Amino acid sequence: MSIKPIQSKKLCRQCEEVFVTTSKKFINCSSCRKTEKKTDWVSKFLNSNFGLWLVNRIAEHQTFKAVDFTSNGLSELYALYKLRKKYCQYSYNKGWSSALELDLCHLYPVKSGAEFTGELSPRNLIIAPSKINRHLGNKVFEVGHKVGLPPPSKRVKGVAAVRQSIKKNKSFRGAVIAFQSTHKLKPSKKGLVEGVIEAKGKFSLMDVAENEFTRLSLNVPKVGSAEVQFMIALQGAQSLRPSKGQAICLDKDELKEQRLWATEPWVRELSDVELTTFVNLKLHLRDGEVTIQNRNFSVGRLYDSYIKNDLHNRFSCTFLNKEVSDLAYEEVVRAFTGKCNAPIQQIKIEEVVEDNW
């Protein structure tokens, strides 16, 4: 004979509504307990390394307009935040140190001296040497992406105001809760350097430069050292476009002909955009460009990365999202190999879960 649990009525200490429970531990109703859990998620986010960094950056910008404060927007920014730490290559020997000193630098600066501020977004941030970031400061070169500042009376003033807005604003709070349901960040630990990630694999400064220029679709001349190339990028590399070897554009008749003469059935099933990219890559027009997953790439650089068995590594640093990175990789490799399902190469960058430091 089973014993039925005894139900009792209690008064919720939060909403002061009566609720029924079989537990002696519960002092709040289920609705308020769920709210408490979500509040705890927000608190952990705000006290995590990424949350502390983000709050300080928004305070510097003085407006939430500079950041895409949605779950997806936060996830993209977090992926870039982690990527910088991977490139730093931390190690421990009687204290933490890094092989490279790198910052998330704004292409359009935070303080321009005008009524604008640079976006706090992956498209306006570049991982670059800290000393270059300090040297350029808030100089404006009219590159990157910016947003207009609200009137002084409506600007967010100080870290405390930013934290309070995230806690109270339903939209911001909802974005953090959705983000935390996936990433589950925890408060940082005292006595340790900011958010260390021990990443396997070595990166030179030139590796970082090439990966970042590809991620941002910057056409930077291969001249001088990596530092020189970063200086060029931060001072307006977007205006530098190749003047020769443009990609072949196929009209409807040419696309039809390509499908007609294709020896593999899967080639005929490609979309017009994919087929055009396939033809350009197959011809190995080294001076040309192709568009893959809405980003422009040099055919020559793609082929060089493929030969060096480094293509998947490059794409993983460019797109940040693994699914998009894999699609881009497959699109290029099938053109170079003529095979629809080419095996994925060994990825040199290891995915690292939030460090919780």
TrEMBL record:
Name of the molecule in the record: HNH endonuclease
Organism name: Shewanella japonica
Lineage of the species this protein comes from: Bacteria, Pseudomonadati, Pseudomonadota, Gammaproteobacteria, Alteromonadales
